[in-house]
Specification:
Blueprint: E1 6-13, H1 19-28, H2 30-34, E2 39-46, E3 53-60, H3 63-70, H4 73-81, E4 91-96, E5 109-110, E6 115-116
Organism: Adineta ricciae
Domain ABM: 6-94
InterPro entries: ABM_dom, AI-2_Isomerase_LsrG, Dimeric_a/b-barrel
Length: 117
């Protein structure tokens, strides 16, 4: 069992006529998701430049908890309910946090806007 926190980014791209319906569907899964075992946070965003893109950003105690979420009834029902409203495949991305040891920062090379590790 993995003990590493998983950060997820789920991008949903919808057809112009379906923005309100999909917004309501996605907003409807926020509270049930936040109550799931292993959910650390779960938030919904709408792209300011493209009102047809919604993004769910969450953090999970481990990969298993995130997988359980993707199989949950409320997630699957919302996904199924909006299948005719999406303009392209929903993108589900998983990230792990890479924490560097601040005491070693002096030993790294800086490029001016980022640190090369």
């Amino acid at each position: 069992m993995s003990h590493s926190v998983i950060h997820c980014v789920i991008d949903v791209f919808v057809k112009p006529h379906a923005e309100e319906k999909v917004r309501e569907l996605l907003a409807g899964i926020l509270e049930p998701t936040r109550k799931e075992d292993g959910c650390l946070k779960y938030k919904l965003f709408q792209n300011m430049a493209d009102q047809c893109q919604f993004t769910l950003i969450g953090a999970w105690e481990n990969e298993e908890a995130f997988e359980d979420h993707l199989q949950s009834d409320h997630y699957r029902k919302a996904d199924s309910s909006m299948k005719d409203d999406v303009s392209k495949t929903t993108e589900v991305k998983r990230y792990k946090y890479i924490q560097t040891d601040p005491s070693k920062m002096a030993d790294t090379k800086s490029s001016g806007f980022c640190v090369l590790i």
